[in-house]
Amino acid sequence: MGRRCLVLSASMGAGHDAVAGELARRLRAGGHDVLVRDVLTLLPPGAGPAVRGFYRFVVRRLPPVYAAIHALFLAPRPGRGRGADVSPMAVLAERRLGALVAAWRPDVVVSTFHLAGQVTGRMRGRGALRVPCAVFVTDFAVHRAWLDPGNDLYLCVSEAAARAAREGTGRAAIATGPVVPPEFHRSGAGAGRDAGGRPVVLLSGGAWGVGPRLARTAGALARHGFEPVLLCGRDERLRRRAGRLPGVRALGWTDDMPGLMASARVLVDNAAGQTAVQALAAGVPVVGFRPIAGHGAAGVREMAAEGLTVYADDLPDLLAAVGELARPGAARDRRAAAGSALFRADADAARLVAGLADRAECGPGGPTDRRGPTDLTGLADRTDSAG
Q1: Topology of domain 182-341, per CATH?
Q2: Which of 99, 130, 333, 350 is the most buried (most CB within 10 A)?
């Protein structure tokens, strides 16, 4: 039976919107009606752009400040719980979310950004929201802002992330694998060499072209026999500057990421976000290097710790890792296999969201009337795994 699914995202870069868009596509393909909303638009007028602008500024210009914010307000604190005041902004979005739910009457709400998950968790936890709520955690390193026990179900990119969500909330958490469009799975890593025979290496700066010394890293790769393709996102200044470097291709915003992945031998990543998991889906090995502050550094190191990627401590390490992974061989095959295994249940995420509407009980008592973690976790056993 078709359900009405409200998907809450956030225009913070492009990753959360990408996950929301792919979840929405899958839900619609399953016969469900979907409404996607940016949680920043539920804040008071002007607050959303201010939050986005502040975040972009500190990540780009004041990384030590963002690292301190992450350490103080977001980093996990073993044994101390979630912390009720991780994001007071959640309170400011409650009225508009309540109005949206009352007007559109969804059967289930799923959040792909931690602020949205805090809004739904707080409202659900005190009975103000009687619609079952899921949270898709896009991070490998799960920080406190993701975790609110008021939500019914957590969907996570890895088993380690799911374990952190279960321990932090006491709620059901299932490792579905990352959510990426099917084009990435079909692309596969191609020959990955330019006309001169140099291995093509992608360098990701995300939607905003953020990262320490991106152009310098690209130049070093070019000098050592690679064909670096720097993804500058919407940062035209970075694109122009990097494009002047010998042997470096600098690209602005592009919608053909599957094609780029198919042409590449290696991805150099600094954020553990959507570009990294898209590469894993396409069979492209990933090397973490010079990560952005805060959640980026935590995620890049967590992916390496789980054996999904290689972490390079310095430029010689990077050149060695890229050189090894760009060549056919056992090292490359191991990384490709580890990345492929991450998507073993990729197709389940949308079905679990829709199934939550059928299985969560939403009576007058709010979340105390819903089914417990054991019943919800059983959903994973009744879905088909991805090919």
Answers
A1: Rossmann fold (3.40.50)
A2: 350
